[in-house]
Amino acid sequence: MEIPPKSPDGSEKSPQSKELVTSNTGSTLCMSSRSESVWTSASHRSKWDIYHKPVIVVSVGAAVFLFGMVITSLSCFLPQNKNVYKMCGPAFLSLGLMLLVCGLVWIPIIRKKQKQRQKSQFLQSLKSFFFNR
Question: What keywords sit in the KW lines (predicted)?
């Protein structure tokens, strides 16, 4: 019979078995899973917590759109580098408009999901009230 080699710190367990014993990958995975998503506790969250991503996208989109307007207008007023302004301006305009529209569409989608979740939670509580007696 072979004797397993001792680990460097002198304990009798092998490094692999120590890693398996102390590993908490499963619990970490469960905590970050979709089942415990932000939607489960939507009633306890503030408006900023719910809408911060679309608000940021709308803000960045508006800023990029305004930057595109400035660059496009520079092509009319400054004769040097006119071609660069004419190329970059519309690109920033379209990118900013795309972000702006995506953020503005995202807000009603979040509202609709929240209403569906509230209805679903209400129906679940009604079902549990009547069928768990």
Answer: Membrane, Transmembrane, Transmembrane helix
Half-sphere exposure of 56 (CA within 13 A, CB side): 6
**How far is Cα 14 from Cα 103, in angstroms, rounded to an integer?**
53
Which domain range does residue 84 map to?
77-108
**Residue 88 located in a structural domain:** yes
- State the pTM of this model: 0.59
Number of domain units in the chain: 1
d(CA 67, CA 30) in angstroms, rounded, equals 43
Amino acid at 86: K
Q: Is residue 128 part of a domain?
A: no
Q: What is the pLDDT of residue 2?
A: 56
Q: How many CB atoms lie within 10 A of CB 12?
A: 9
Asked if residue 131 is part of any domain, the answer here is no
**In this predicted model, what pLDDT tens digit does every residue of 114-130 receive, in sequence order?**
888 888 888 888 888 78
Write the DSSP assignment of 35-63 as a string of letters: GG-TTTTGGGS-HHHHHHHHHHHHHHHHH
